[in-house]
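Objective 1b: paired records.
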Amino acid sequence: MSAQGENRQTLNTLYKLKKEILKSDNDTLVSQIDHAIQKTYNEQLVFSFIGHYSAGKSSLINYLLNQDILPSSPVPTTSNTVAVQIGDGTGIQAFINQYQYASLGNYDELKTLNTKDMDIQAITMDIQSEDYQHNTVFQDTPGVDSNTDSHEESANRFLLNSDLIFFTVEYNHVESEHNLTLLKEIAGLDIPLVLIINQIDKHDDREITLDTFLNRVKRTLTNWNIHPEHLFTTSIYESPYNRIDELKAFIQETEERRAELEVSYDARITKNIEDKQLGYLRDHLDELIEELQLDNALTSERAAERIEYLNNELTKAEINHLRSDEDELRTHVKESVKKLVKDSYLFPHQVKDSITEYLKVMAGEKKAGGLFGRKKKEQAMYEESLAQVNESIQPVIHTEINANINSFFQSLGLIGEPFKFEWKDAFLKTEQITSLNQTYITNYFDKLKSSLTKEVSEKAVVHMDKLTAADTGEVKAQTTLTAEKALYVKARELLGLIESLDTQNYRHFYIHMDDEIDKLNLLEEITLSYDDDNHVEVEESRHNEFTVNNEESMNLTAFRELNTLLEDSPRYTDYRKLLNDKLQ
């Protein structure tokens, strides 16, 4: 696969993974995956230099770039990551948060911004260089000295998106416990690691030979189970042991392995994010299991069974509540039956046809033939039309009304004589018909449906008095059942998310990347404004507009056609309402 194809496939995977993470509330991980998406989208090769301020990282990077671009003192970037990207442009961007930045002309503007009580999370700089390839990034990551959680989180995010880490340590502090502890943590990230012993000009052969010093360092690293791929001794000053030019050559050689490093990064960052999300989900699941006081492992099947049981218990609790208040029960039955009749499919085509024929007879559109006995023939036509209506509609009443109302009574735990509603010719009320057109017929059916709804609901309330209440047994309080159900629903959701990541099933979801690619550039330039107290006012980030469902990319024509087809189908009123809500 080509490098471009690999890049596109990685974006596809990361984008799907982001959608999966957004199903939980793991905002920190969303931030990290956005950073990974941005790096992949921009096809960056990132070299991260990490260490204490006193290690001289900024001066070292300046030398490697052959430009005095980073300040050698910790002002103004005392606890910010600074990323220098090689390209065709020049400029400085101060990131107010991960997604929004303000463009600056120079460091003086950056210093001014710092006086405005502004927390700058990161700084990026674009420079031109003939020594390095485009989209190579030198990243000064002062995570060691971060003194706030937000700065530490930002530094970790930058660090995890590195292709290679240069751990830079000052000559006199190579074997400090703090440095060794941090080195061991970084080695555990499985990111290629190079150790730079900087300020080697401080070495004095009269105290210890360099070979003895380096051998001691290597033994210490081995004892700590730290195995950097390379070790360089560097300084911006002259020293017989200065290998800074060898370091520069190593970086240039590494650039030639860009494709190899990108493949390694893609696999590493995806696994890292998957593992972190799995840990996050399992921690939350453990909390739920503890709250539910379960002794055995919880599975999706067991959660589903429990939810079904709780739903049944909630139904019983609702029934008990209704049956404890006769007036409320009557109101519930009446309104529920009204809705049931309204939503029923009472007028299929055979019923519509027979009633329409009846209306034609009543309107005089159907005439009796012959010269004699016309009145008798018309009466016969009238009676025949009534019989056809009765024959066509009574079976529909049985299935659409009687069967459903009996099921409804059963759901309330009310048992006894079955409910039976019979069709009567009297329901076919007709005033004088002046013009039998489609509008009249439509209105007639609406009125007939309303009349039947009223008749059936009143009969159902009367019938309720003939029924007896079945014993539902002891049931917990509704609030207790509802709270337990909510925990199991959340647990089932977490189990589903865990399974999707464990099996990597989320990777099989289809995403049309041509429609999504424009969304992958998450950065947004803003113009800073100041309030009366000279504090910076930051605009809301459009990053918050990301949603799991991308409805804009869907072709909704079929759904709109289905919605139109359902207009004349009362049985599917609820479905049509749902479609309407989604289409608006």
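Objective 1b, second protein:
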Amino acid sequence: MTRTGGQKRAEASPPSQAVVLGGGMAGMLAAAALARHLDQVIIIERDALPQTPRARKGLPQAQHTHVLPSTGARAIEALVPGTLRRLLDAGAHHKGMPNQLLSLTPQGWLRRWPETQYVIGCSRDLLDWVIRERLRHHPKITIRTGVAATGVLGSADHIRGVRLRDERTGHLSALTADLVVDATGRGSRMPHWLKALGLPAVREVTVDSGLTYVTRIFQSPDGATDFPVVNIAAAPGKHPYGQAGALLPIEGGRWLVTLAGTPGGEPPTAQDDFITFARGLRHQIIGDLIADAEPLGPAHTSRSTANRRRFYENLKHWPDGLLVLGDACAAFNPIYAQGMTVAALGAVALDRHLTRHGLRPRTTRRAQRAVARPVIVAWSVATGQDRLLLNGADARPTATDRLAQRGAARLMRAAAGDPAAAEAFFGVLTLAHSPTRLLVPKALLATLVGSRRPPLTEPPLTPREQSFLVGSRGGLAAWRRRPARPPLADPLGGRCSVGCGTRLLDDVVAAPSTRRRNKGDSYPSAGPRIRAAPSVERRHGGSVQIGSVAEDVEHRRQTLRLRQVSAVPVPRPRPPQPLRTAPVRHDQRAGSAQHDRRLKPLPQPAGRIGAAPRYEPPCPVNSGVHDRGRLHMP
């Protein structure tokens, strides 16, 4: 077979190769994106990577709360398919937002509207391990551990590889590549390496509120593994030292609890003091939840919470063949749960760039700008809030910061009482939408007008969730000590418990049998009020009332209804009205044909005796209790 010239050139060209520095979240996701377009990807990691979901030396912040929002989860699933299913199978939790979120913002408690976004709750060790294991067997990806990068090869115009050092033997080597990706995190040495090549210094901005994190893991109580996520945000000006807390259900039936505070109000590490600090937050729900929970292991402290951004995309001259992403480009305060999402979106941007442009010369600068684009919104959110916790001259916000803070405050206040504002708020917070989503008419109107609903003074807990609280806050602890309410009786023989959420309303209320209205009328001690004696023909001012006990009782029994329990009092139905008849002259003889015709009842109004009954289906929850349904008058 004769081969064409294009086939010969393709066979002669060397395979394309990329080197990724760093085996963390950003490095693994970048390798997954590169493996779609290049022939070989080599991951260089200084530390040993565990074979099980365990902490590793190079990631001390892994012990603290890491929330993966829905935007980051979708990006990871697009790069590494099957990750979410593997996480959920391993015990991770899917928590809807805001229906499975108890969040106390500086403007108050958020209501639990229907789900618009979600978060994946698990430990950072499990998340890293699942992604690492799915890429470990990739045919194009090679992971080299125990090797550290000491510099880059090439010039200010083009990067051609990296210099390596073996951590055990100290052996030095070089590795060439078509593309070098720096994903070494906060400790990246890339600014120094670029300066050594003659490039100008990279502009760097740091916003450090001085927050200190202390995290403990607790065994959740029996039946509380599906408890919602709890977040108590700091409220500068309302609560001192920026103190905040979060409770995240993770795999293994555990709760990951992180407390935070600025200098002078740092959280303690001792168990009793840890609970006391949690109860001293703006709300003591976290302290009440962990008061009787069993601690698992010691407390872990971290002070690496500064926001730091390096503006690589603004360099006038950028070397070809180099890319920086993840925390090496922009690191955030972990309290805002944006670092992993920004890293995943950066890897997705890299994948799109390679799809459109490949590795053509002088296209890496465009890729660096694309990778830095998701950083903009996350940086504004994180630094805008952390600047409120600063003291001194650096704490003076700019006019733009003040405008953004006022807008954020109005949005959070509106989100507490309007579902459209809440949807826009969580969409921007999780980086699912750009801030222009706030200009949607419904969200904008809710933000400008505000909420008509009164603010919540307590967390919107369900009765079952309230049962896990321990403490003395208002009626929450008293709710657990309340006497059991007996089921409501059904005069027709049925009985509905509290479980179905309905109650039976009768048009009469049981009263002592000694109470009487008229002669011959009595009220039994249980069941509806009924007439005890048959009614007779009575004359009142020239009119005749004709009725019977059977009709009266049947009417009352048919008007029993199942209604939803409501805080609005339900008015008592009007008693049955007498039959409407034609007037009768006193001189008419009883028993005559004319008299019988005159006594014929007139048509009755709707809902009275004689109207077609309406059938009510069985109780939807307790079908075994009300399985025969009800007959009602309309």
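The mean pLDDT is 76. Residues 339-357 form the longest helix (19 residues).
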